[in-house]
Structure formats: structure tokens, C-alpha cells
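Page 47, continued from p. 46.
Same chain as before, 297 aa.
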Amino acid sequence: MFASARSVLHLTLLSARFSVGRLVGITVGVALGTALILLLAGAAQGLNERDHRAAWLREEGRPAFEVPLAEDGVSTAGDPIPIPLTSDSILVDRVDDVFRDRIIQHRAVAATPDSTVEIPGVGTAPEPGTYYASPAMHELIQSTDRDQLGDRYGRYAGAISELALAGPDSLVIVSGVSESELRGPSSATAMVSEFTDQPYGGSATAYRTLIVMGAIAVLFPVLLLINISTQWGATVRSERLGVLRLMGAAPRVISSVAAAEAFVTSLAGALIGLVLASMLRPVATSLEVGGIATVPG
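Result:
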């Protein structure tokens, strides 16, 4: 048994000595393919987590007014009637501001003093005249003249947790206002009792379908690269194994040599690909998607 193992090892090294270039090429191809697959899988997971972290910003709520209808059930019979604000609901106005060509996701909220509604990354609603801001938003306010930006929102009350932000560059602000400020006739204010954690809402199935189609489109050339790499030099490999056969090597030994050669190159390529993916991960996470970089995990 040990003699057979030594023979396989000796013949494997002998075969590899005459085809170093081919084996290196296969190893490099497997390494690149492995690194690309790992980076793509990590990117897909990172983008999905990013969308879920910021899903609460998509909350549309329910109408804050009731519209009385006439007897025909279609035409209105008076002015809209405000729905009373309670401890288990808050008023939210989605107002996206623009500053220096950058979009600021602003949520103005009003709540009762005993409100139990939790705003992701903030907690209970800020008091009127105060605001919570993402770290990037706070830095922008601090570096800008107050009369240009800071005066819009009031007094800084704290930071929005990164667990509720799409990325480190997110410009998000939650400001507290009085109920009367959000009850204007032209207001688009909504009543919210709980913020959503579903970033795609009713379009989730369509998004998943697009993700699967995109993954197939991207992974196909990567798998093709790995296949080409492993098949590269197949003719030369067959000739080398044929030489071993002419030298008197048993079929079982030749099969073992071929398997050992494939195992070593695949293992080496996979390990190199793993290291390469780890080295490139910081670069991948720093790339901006939709103007926002993914938060490194």
C-alpha cells in the first residue's frame, strides 16, 4: 500500500515537472473563478442587508385624514377630518431635501408625549425642535454654515444608529415637529404605527426574480472560466499520462495520478482564491452603489 502511494506521488511529481505551465494556468484560473464567486456572493448578501437596514425609510404609512363622502359614496361631503394622534401612532412627513446636489432623506415626525412607537436607529420620536442625524449628515451639518443647513432642523439630539442606515455615506435626518406643523391642508403626512422591515414591499417577488437572473448572467462566465482553466492543456495531459502508461504504470496508478493532479491544482486554486477575495473585499465594500457605499461587516 505504502509502495503504491509512493509510486503515485513519484509519478505525479514526474508528470507535473514536465507540465508546470499548464498546472499553474489551471491553478490561476481556479483561483480567479473562486475569488469572483466569493466576491459576487458577498456583494449580493451585502446589498440585501443594506436594503433591509434602510427599509424603514420606505414606510408609507396610512392616511392621516378621513375624507367624508356623500351619499353616492364617490363625491366628498366636506373637508378632510384629521385622525386623532394616539400613543401607538406617529405622524410622519417624508420630505427629501436636496443640498449641494446630494439627496437628504428627511423624516419629520410628530408624536404624543407618551408615544410607544419605535423609530429604527432612533427610538422614540425626537421632541419638537430637535433632530437625530446619521453620522455623515451630522458631519455635513457641522462643516456647513448653520444658516445654510443646520437651522432647517433645530438642535442636534443624537446619532442615528448605523444598523438603520444603508451605508456610511447615507444622509438621513429625523426631526421632531409639532402636530400642527404636519396637519396642513397640503401636507402629505402619513400615520405610522410600525415601520416596515421589507425593502421591496409588494415587489419582492419581482426583485428576487431579477436577482436570480442577474446571478445566472454573472456566474455563467465565471463558471466558464473555471471550466476552461481545468480543461486547458487536456491534450498535453493525455500525452503525459500516455507516457506513464508506456513506462508500465498500472491503470489504477495512472488514474490516481490524474486525480491527485486535479485535487492539488483545485485545492491550491481555491485557497489562493479565498485569500485573493479577502484582500479585495475592502475594495469591493468601498464601491458605491446608488451613491452609497456598503457598510463593511
